[in-house]
Fold this sequence. Notes:
Layout: H1 7-21, H2 23-47, H3 52-72, H4 75-93
Amino acid sequence: MMIKRTRSEREKLYRHVLKHFGKQAQLLRVLGELGELTRAVAKYAHTGVVDENLIEEMADVQIMLHQLIDMTATQGSIDHEIHCRLNRLANLTGYNHTPEIKGDLDG
């Protein structure tokens, strides 16, 4: 049975997993998952088919990135950098839509 977890529950689980396996093991796991995603993306680039493996590897990397962010306590810096880079992309591509400002900037 699949359990859908809230953001808060996922963050608690990431910390639990980090404590259970240890920082070094999870850092090595990040590298492994990135390698698997690289292979899945290469296959997608070649075939143009979004298969189950690509979806699984994207999910694995997203989970590992959340753990990496949590273990390095860099969420605020990353949020700032994402906004800077999105602004740069908007400028580069001539995208001049001004987004509505809402309480949650994640969405």
